[in-house]
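Usage

Read records sequentially. Each one opens with the input sequence:
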Amino acid sequence: MNMSIPGYTVLHEMSRGGMGVVYLAIQKALDRQVALKVLPAAPARDPAFRKAFLDEGKVVARLTHPNIITLYDLGHTADGYYISMEYIPGKNLKERIREGLLLKDSVQIIVQLAQALGYAHRHGVVHRDIKPTNVLFRDDRSLVLTDFGVAKLQDEGILLRSGDALIGTPGYVPPERVKGEPEDARSDLYSLGALFYEMLLGMPPYAGEDAQATALKHVHEPIPELPEILAFLQPILNRLLAKDPGERFRDAHEFVQSLEEIVRARFVDDADLLRKLEDQVSLLVKPTQAWSDRSGVPQAFDTTQDLGHGRPLVGARARGASRSRRLLRRLGWVAAGAVAVTVWHYGLAPRMWYSLDPQAEHVLQQLLAYEGTQPVASLLGQMGAESPYATYTFALAMLQGHPRVMEGLKEVAARFETRARREWRRGHMDQALLLVRQGLHFQPHHTGLATLERFMRGKLWEKQRAQIMTELLVQAKGHMQEARLIESKGDNAFDHYNAVLLLDRNSREAREGLTRISQRLTEDAETARQAGDLERSLALIDQGLRVDPEGNGFQTLKDAVAEDQRALGEKHRRLVAQWLERAQGQFQTGRLTTPPGDNAFETYRMLLAVVPGQAEALAGLEQIAERCVQLAEAAREPGNVEASLALIDQGLQAVPGHARLAELRTALGSGQAEAIRGLLGKAEQQLVASRLTAPKGDNALETYQQILALESGQYLQTGPFCEKSHRQYPAAP
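and closes with the structure output:
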């Protein structure tokens, strides 16, 4: 083997995937076996791959929990980057499911897994790939959650292996991921629910003909129902597998609490039921020698131990038994008699077979005679009801080692298969599938039933898919009529037609619908272009390219709009140059604000309306204001306050808030009051001298008119005076 990592002896390759190769290795310093995950040098040169690989190490390093894989080391060599982790030689959960799990084992596993996830969630980590192969078991049977390669650090925004591809495994993917919506810890709880369902029944809740079909079932199909014998767990699964994250458990802790309450209400608080269970188990099997002779068997009932292994049911805490441990201990009592026989059969006591009780034989005969016509409850009964069938069936399901039970259950499964096929041929699809599921309840690995279920599920899915496609097409047509072509994500014709194509890539109606969207966008873009709205035209073209990325028509139109923009830009530049030249000429000839329609102020303002923020136009207005300052100061010197104020007003019109003009107005304000006082004194003298209206230029009437003009600010027509002042007081060179 060419792989060389300092400090490690690489033994052999164990597995490989999208994020690297996993080797079994020896850590030399501690002489221990480790799992060495290596990102080879070639992909490590890609910054995105390298970051994703190192981020996985970062995620695992921040988590220290007995049910989460332990990280030992992280580094890099010439052969690439590596992560050294705890080596788990035991089986994974997928293998244990195939072998068959007792109900108490399923609950024990799901509780430990929920505790691990709850710890990760409290530390801001969402796993995002909960599935059986990512749950391993140590030699002491404690579980370990592994593979954080697609985990998400909520507080730091790290998301490993994202992009356009669907992250995770289709059989366990939450609906919000399929729909591209935000995820959080409740998304892991959905995957946990799918895993719990598989542990209970041996198969995931949804299965399609391919990955896409399976993923879509999580969005559209109802939550599957558990068999009668497990129906008490249905409320738990309904919340775990809720399509809306808001309807799921808030966190893993709430889930564990609810599971405990359900199990306690079902088993523990019904002492009469427990007594009946014990009685029924003792009736079901009768050993050929006394139980007291098997001293090893009663030890299996130690309620603080995992049966036959001598370790806590769930990780022990410093303060006595945890809630989850009590839950599992109580559940263990329910199956006590059945487990005892299982322990006996697998070697913890002398191996021997039991004679099957006549009542138990009667149960088998009832199952064999079942025609699928009467309600299931009449056959299986309800846990705790007077009918003994439920307790018998529960015990029978646990006693897989008894030859008569094995033989009988195989025959039961075969009968269910025959009846299911008969109902299917009659067109009773739901009844046929129900019979298959009931048969699998008694013989979970029956090949004929499993094959028949896949076939039936496929046919039912085709029927459901057709209904979904019809609804999507109707909605898409409605969006077309309302002109919601591609905008409003998830609520437009484009998204609905694409959803149809996910279900049937050859759908003629969906492809024709996308073609109509493309044509409509082309027409609207051309119309906007002809109207001169080039910005909207480009937006419509970009939408069209999303619908038809290879569409040459959109690209040709986009090139034409770009040419229009270039020509328009050139035209604007010419107009701007012309307007600037015109304004400069008006300024030089003193036409600062008049005459109307031919002055520098109006020309600059018109230019700014077309090109907001045009620097030269703004500078031109500043020039007008500065020129008004010069003219106002020049008019002020011979005492012509009125003219000076008029010029100041013109300058402030060009540049509101101009500092020098504002200062000059303040100064002239005090001078104006003094001028009025002087004119009033002059008018009094003219009145005394009887110079009422004559001589011209020295009479009381003209003086009083001057005073009124000063007070009203209308002494002169400002425009003409501005031109006159410009000629009288030319700009400084």
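Summary fields computed downstream for this record:
- Residues 90-269 form a domain with the Transferase(Phosphotransferase); domain 1 fold (CATH 1.10.510.10).
- Residues 632 and 644 are 4 Å apart (CA to CA).
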